[in-house]
Amino acid sequence: MVKKAIRLAIRLRRKFHRASTRKLKDTSIIHRLAALEVFQKSKTILFYAPISHEKEVDTWPLIKRHLGDKTIVLPKITMKSKRIDLHVISDLDEIESNPQGIPEPVKNCKKVKPKDIDLAIIPGVAFDRRGNRLGFGLGFYDRLLKKISCPKIALAYEFQILHAVPRATHDVPADIIITEKKTYHIS
After folding, report:
1. Could you tell me how far CA 180 lies from the centroid of its own chain?
2. In Å, what is the CA distance from 150 to each residue of 24, 26, 117?
3. Per-residue pLDDT tens digits for 79-138
C-alpha cells in the first residue's frame, strides 16, 4: 500500500511538472552524468528510453550524442516472461514503441548479455539517499539489475528523492543518483 501511495504522489508531481522547467532540469542532469569519470570511461552503456507519459528524465540527447563513440544498449521488455532483454542500437531508426508505448529496439538488433554492460543508467519512480529505488511495480529492472555487476546510475528529479523508500530483499539499489541539484554517491 505504501508503494502505491508513493507512486501516485510522484506521478501527481510529474503531472504538474512544466515542460520548460523539465527541459532545464534534464539538461542539468545530463551534464552531470556526462561529466562523471565512470560515464566517460564506459564503452558499453545501458540507457533507458524515457516514457513520455511518465515524464522521465530525457536520455535521448545523450543517446544521440554517443551513438558513434559508445555502444548504446536499450532494454526490450518481454511481458509474457516479465523480463528485459538488452539490445545494441546503432541508429535511432532501430527504435519502435511497444504496445505499452515504451520505445524499444527493433527485434533484429544484436542482443547483449548483462555481464557485457560497463554502466547502467536506470529509471525509477522514487529514490532515497541510500540508493533504494521504487520502480513501476513489475520488477523488470530489479531482475535485470541482479545480473549486472557494473555501476548503476539513477536519473531523477529532486522531488523524486524521498527520506525513505520501501525496500524488499529483491530490490537492487543505485550506486549513484543524479538530480538537477546534486549527485548522490551511495557508499
Report:
1. 15
2. 29, 24, 7
3. 777 788 999 999 999 999 988 888 999 989 999 999 999 999 999 999 999 999 988 766
**Residue 43 is placed in which grid cell?**
564503452
Q: Is the pLDDT reported for residue 57 higher than 90?
A: yes
Give the end-to-end CA distance of the chain in Å, rounded to a whole number.
29
CATH of the domain at 108: 3.40.50.10420
pTM, rounded to two decimals: 0.92
Question: What are the grid coordinates assigned to 131, written together?
Answer: 540508493
**How far is it, in rounded angstroms, from Cα 176 to Cα 174?**
6
Per the structure, how many domains does the chain have? 1
In contact, 156 and 178? CB cutoff 8 Å: yes
Q: Which domain holds residue 105?
A: 2-185
